[in-house]
Amino acid sequence: MSDSSLLLVISAAYLIIASAKKRSDKKKRSIWMKNYLKTRHFGIIDDLQLDEDIVFRNFTRMSRTNFYYLLKKIEPEIEKQNTRFREAVPAKIKFLITIRFLATGDSFSSLMYLFKVSKQFISEMLPTVLKAIVNALQNYIKLPSSDHEWRSIAEEYNKRWNFPHCVGAIDGKHVVIQKPENTISEFHNYKGTDSIVLLGIADANYCFTYVNVGCQGRISDGGVFKNTSFSKKLEKNELGLPECEALPGRMMKLPYVLVADDAFALSENIMKPYATDLNKGSPKRVFNYRLSRARRIIENTFGLLSAVFRIFRKPIEIKVEETIVNIVLACVYLHNFLRMQPDSAKFYSTSGCFDNEDCSTGEIIPGSWREITSGDTGLRQLRSIPRKPASNATNIREEFKSYFMSEIGSLPFQDKYL
């Protein structure tokens, strides 16, 4: 064998030995599951089943019946099969983690130790479960589309709060968030925080009939409503509202309206309070009082939402915009669902949770949600912006005011206490 051939053989042998040594010295593969996760069991839901009903309800914010009803509807979308490497997390645990996250606003770290799953797992499964909840409950928020449906809401508002022709109370809230990824200032609002806007309309039973979520916080509060599909349909007269009618004992025909605060512009279909000449006993003060009684519905609806779903009690610490929107939507749909279910409604919205009124004096009795949400920083009011109303809108408000001062339209205590 020549010297050159011998040299090649020696070099090849050296490379083989070196490669083998390198493989033997290579660091062992790190474990793919933490030790404390290896001992996990998914028995927490079973523990809750064995306990008293009140424990289950406090943990999930709903009855056992409603929990499993929703689980059955979303299970096909969120369930995964076991593999030979690991056991898949059951659909009911995914649902329970999501409900607990919405109900408490707990961090992923807290949920990780409670359920013995990784933060990465929670982050990955949460968007899927949120979408499944929203899809399953789509029919629980429905905008009226017929004359009969709108009149039914108006009759309830007049019966409960003595405001005729009212088809809903409208308001909006800035939902404070962390700045989403790959954005600069789109979500930066007038308060100096980042937010998206939740705009809602409620019927007389504290249920949402319409919501719009996701308008970026930088958009002026006055422009939030204009950007909604509801506003566009209202302008084009495509909502199916009843025809204008005169109030009892009056001649002028009035449209059906929404009641709002100063964040909205006065228009033919949106009534807001007077801003001046509010001396005691004045007709404008009486109008404001009557409007506030009806508008308090949406204020209480938002109040209960943030009292039960404490995810709203602080900035939402998720940076993916679509997930943030689905968090808000899931809570809103769950609100309507739980309000409409007999076995959940009685403890979701307990007696005394809403503002009430002493019928003999008109004195407001604050609802319990106000104490629960005291110091809330996650939901913030839209900014009030003065706007010049159209003359016809002014005439409509004046007619409502005159009716409230008339013998047939007044309340027994308003002259004495207002």
From TrEMBL:
It is found in: Nucleus. Keywords: Hydrolase, Metal-binding, Nuclease, Nucleus, Signal. Its main location: nucleus. The keyword Oxidoreductase does not apply. GO terms for cellular component: nucleus. Its cofactor is a divalent metal cation. It comes from the Eukaryota. The keyword Cytoplasm does not apply. GO terms for molecular function: hydrolase activity; metal ion binding; nuclease activity. It holds the Pfam family DDE_Tnp_4. Residues 170-336 form the DDE Tnp4 domain. Residues 1-20 form the signal peptide. Belongs to the HARBI1 family. PANTHER family: PROTEIN ALP1-LIKE ISOFORM X1, PTHR22930. This is DDE Tnp4 domain-containing protein.
